[in-house]
Amino acid sequence: MLLLEAHHVKHYVQDRLLIDADQLQIHQNDRIGLVGRNGSGKTTLLQILANKISPEEGVVIQQTACELLPQFKRTDTTKSGGEVTQEYIQKALVKAPTLLLADEPTTNLDTDHIEWLEKKLREWQGAFIIVSHDREFLDALCTTIWEINEGKIKEYAGNYSDYVKQKEAEKHQEQLAYEKYVKKKKQLEEALKLKEKKAERATKTPKRVSESEVRGTKPYFAKKQKKLQKTAKAIQTRLEKLEKAEKVKELPPIKMNLPNEETIKNRIIFRVEDVTGMIGERMLWSHANFQVRGGDKLAIIGPNGSGKTTLVKKIVNQEPGIMVSPSVKMGYFSQNLNILDVEKSIIENVHSSSKQGETLIRTVLARMHFFNEDVYKPVRFLSGGERVKVALAKLFLSDINTLILDEPTNFLDTESVEALESLLKEYEGSVIFVSHDRRFIENIATRILVIRNHKIELFEGTFQQYKHVQPQKTRDSKKDQRLLLETKISEVLSRLSIEPSKELEMEFQKLLKEKRELDINK
């Protein structure tokens, strides 16, 4: 069943053609992930499909109820960002539209609530288009990916990982096409040189030949030269008409000179002893004890409001109970981007705090998709996502050996998140970061620090290993709960047999209900 179709849609932002879609169709039960760089038009496309804005050309036909979940939700001074997002999602799902258009629905949600939303949408009966930079989320839910690039929308079958594989295959084909083009171009250029040389030689008078003989052979050589020149011209035409293939950009490796690199490698650089986290009268965690080694890539995870940013700030400010090695040189990234001078250009901002060479600086900026003349743009003209990328590049290239990052992937598109990942994987210093992006944590972290239930626990291993350990812990916990409930039920039953009462009967029914729920969710 066709739910929505769009024909010959064009939409401009000033002189730029932002959306240029010939035909789009959404069918019943479609699970579509919409991806593309920051500013590519994802939000605008959703608004056009939802009939919130009219395209300058073309038509959108809705055959069913359609609900748009916007990216920028209203602020509420009494609720957290996560609570506001949840409220919007709940209201949208209660309406049960046949088609849901969701723009960054995981914004401000912690990992627990992202997984809650995943479960809701997996069980949901309608179709949807989701804009998200959370690759794990797109993998779990989508069966089709729409990529928007320079206004055009290209469809890929499968989830986000399938899309990445297809993009890699396309890149491989582009490389083969380039190699074929270079080889053919070289062959034609060599053939052209050869013909031109032969044509030049055809006019030269052979040695030890009389003048009368030369006069007799001139027409022959002239004819031969003309033929060779004609062949050369044909080769030149083929060379000019040869379809050009662009060279696939290869990213050079990153090798940085970090201060005190050998001094801190694998040695304890942070020691946290008996540290308690408070906000006003509210205790976040108590008596935390852990150590961080040089070269660690430590992910700090936990629900919203558990105290992740509070812990990071305590480390940065070296508060009582936190011992920091004198060899450590820290750089801190937070969402307020106060490390940028908006009046200066991208490259001026980076140079101001870096001791790295020009080549490496340009290499890192290219990784973050700032190429050639882009680096001279003043920061004030950049979008929010671009400013985040500049701040991260500036910090990465600063004269430091330890990166402290608080939600670095917020406001970045998937391509930029993957670019940041590639930088952090090659970074030989230490990284402590807060994130709810599960794929990002999985790809970067070597140790996991968990803040939950007012406690801080350090897990020695990757996020993948941590996820495998958790279900076993949950199963053991549920087993203990079941035994406790069965013991309580036995006690209440024995009391009921001696002295029956309404209160005891109610308690018995309550315990039975708890046991049934535990059995259902096991």
Question: What report would you give on this structure?
Answer:
This protein has helices spanning 42-49, 81-94, 111-123, 135-141, 160-201, 211-241, 261-264, 308-316, 346-351, 358-367, 384-396, 414-426, 438-444, 463-498, 502-520, and strands at residues 2-13, 16-27, 31-35, 57-62, 66-69, 99-103, 127-131, 144-149, 152-157, 268-279, 282-293, 297-301, 322-324, 330-333, 402-406, 430-434, 447-452, 455-459. A 6-stranded mixed beta sheet has the order 5-6-7-3-8-9, sandwiched between helices. A 6-stranded mixed beta sheet has the order 14-15-16-12-17-18, with helices on both faces. It has a 3-stranded antiparallel beta sheet with strand order 2-1-4, with helices on one face. It is 44% helix and 23% strand. Helix 5 (160-201) runs antiparallel to helix 6 (211-241). It is an alpha/beta fold.
